[in-house]
Design a protein that fits this description.
346 residues; Quinone Oxidoreductase, Chain A, domain 1; Rossmann fold; 2 domains; six-stranded parallel beta sheet; binds zinc ion
Amino acid sequence: MKAVQLVGPRDLRVHEIPDPVPGPRDVLLKVAGAGICHSDLHVAHSEQPLFRRPVVLGHEVTGHVVDMGSEVAGWSLGDRAIVHLCWSCGECVACRRGDDNLCVATGRRAQPPAPGLGPDGGMAEFMKVPARFLVPLGDLDPVTSAPLADAAMTPYHAIEQSRSVLKPGATALVIGIGGLGHVGVQILATLPDVRIVALDVDELRLKTALTLGAHDTVRGCPDAAARVLELTGGLGADAVFDFVGNDATTATAVDAVAPGGMCQFSGLGGGSIPASAEARTGRGWPWGAWLRSSYGGTRTDLEACVRLAQEGRITIEVETFPLADALDAFRELERGNVRGRAVLVP
Ligand SMILES: [Zn+2]
Ligand SMILES: [Zn+2]
């Protein structure tokens, strides 16, 4: 089959590899769509031995069931399915309490295995998936649904974990209106009476945010947090979602969160968090404010995102590329030329 395979450090190829063969508990999907995430760019460019190679990339994957192992139940040939991002162990203390995105089987600061970052992913014609990591798509269009697996589930999880501060009348600040942020705005818009402030360096993205449910926009700049304070009576946002995570956005997040508010860091931009423990000095962390790093989401969160999409309450802006043109798609994403999410179609 044709696949987008990272062969070695900085060596990404579109070429033919053997078709995967499903084991007893696996389903074989004929891939319909595979989204490209910023973390794919990171993996493709990394020199670190952190990632297994060769590996087929792709962790936002949908497809049709075309084969399955002898022990698989509940699936039929032709069913549409989406692949869960967190291939957790199912048995550790985190998995047992339902936090499968925080599975600790691989260690304290690792992440659960994710397809395309360990096991082979879905930027290919076929993908082998353990059946327990599949969620039914119903009659959703599988091409435009592929990014639900990460671009929707990751913000959904961060928002779900902020519900205690997202009461009616609260303000939510969304930093970065790209793949994750443009869905995050739509999910926040489903909550009653939450005012949404969108922040980005790109004017066009801010315009998009307004059409998706944002009430105010702030242009990303060193004074962005001051602008958020102006909009919120000097107190800041009750929930801050940083979907970028570089030094500029983490500083804005710290300076824009309200006392008792919640800062959720989902962006993997490698920024550090410049806060001091004493609220009254330097870059003081406001009293009572929470700081949380948010990774992916649970299988339940993915099911909720599929439901929101089926109800038409979230729509993912998608730009499709043929699988054969994957390297062009990676380049366009890198140049910032992709609106919403790039999806490869075999
Ligand atoms: Zn991702
Ligand atoms: Zn586990």
